[in-house]
Amino acid sequence: RSDLLKYLNPDIRESPLPTKLNVFSRGSLLDLEIRHNVFDLRNVELLDPYGILSLFCHLVVLAQGGEKAELLLEDNYVCKYLYTIGFFHELEKECKSKVTWDTSKISGTKLGNPSILIPTSSIKYKGEERVVTGRLIELLIKQGFSENVSRYIGVILGELADNALTHSGKSLSEKACYLLASRFIIGDSNCIIAGIADIGKGIHRSLKE
């Protein structure tokens, strides 16, 4: 397959193509880029929320910089999962025509997957995070978490979103952060993983110190 793709795409990178990425998180983001701004999602077996949001923010940054990108999809679990969590819907809103993909390759997609607690959600202005985290708190309580723990998690995510909107260094129209939460079975444990990300400048060194 690698030899064939190199023959068909002479500009392809010399590094080997990814085979099977068991978990796609931020560390494997660069492995997905098989050509400049072409990201292959066909061989990924599992995504975590942080990896999803890392890819999402990476694509938004490319689009804001005037670059175009392409996603390669197929009818597999991961691409269906991205569709179900609203990844493509939110990406279309953020990147307009700068990022392209073909969702016609994905069959039998259904919204409302019970493992999705909060789909890919953009938070653009202060106070909006309370609506998103409020939904998450209700869902956590339904899952059996105590009200105190649920509200504490909501407060943490709300504070992170507020900080992103306050200190991103972006103009008002560009300020945004993104959140999603899903259930995962890890070993014998039924876990909930929440991810939050933004495309700001990061935490200033003096604050880290």
Query: What's the number of helices?
Result: 7
Q: Report the average pLDDT across residues.
A: 81
Low-confidence stretches: 12-16
Counted beta strands:
7
Q: How far apart lie the N and C ends?
A: 48 Å
Radius of gyration: 18 Å
Portion of residues in beta strands equals 15-25%
**Order of strands across the main sheet:** 1-2-3-4
State the helicity in percent bands. Answer: 25-40%
Describe this structure as you would to a colleague.
The structure is a single chain. A hairpin with a 2-residue loop joins strand 6 (177-186) and strand 7. The protein is an alpha/beta fold. Strands 1-2-3-4 form a 4-stranded mixed sheet, covered by helices on one side. A 3-stranded antiparallel sheet has the order 5-6-7. 38% of the residues lie in helices and 19% in strands.
List keywords for this structure.
209 residues, alpha/beta, four-stranded mixed beta sheet, three-stranded antiparallel beta sheet, 7 helices, 38% helix, globular
Write the layout of secondary structure elements.
Blueprint: H1 2-8, E1 33-35, E2 38-40, H2 49-64, E3 69-72, H3 77-84, H4 87-95, E4 99-100, E5 116-123, H5 128-142, H6 147-167, E6 177-186, E7 189-198, H7 205-208
Parallel strand pairs: 2-3, 3-4
Antiparallel strand pairs: 1-2, 5-6, 6-7
Helix pairs in contact: 2-4, 5-6
In short:
With 209 residues, the chain is α/β, with parallel strands linked by helices.
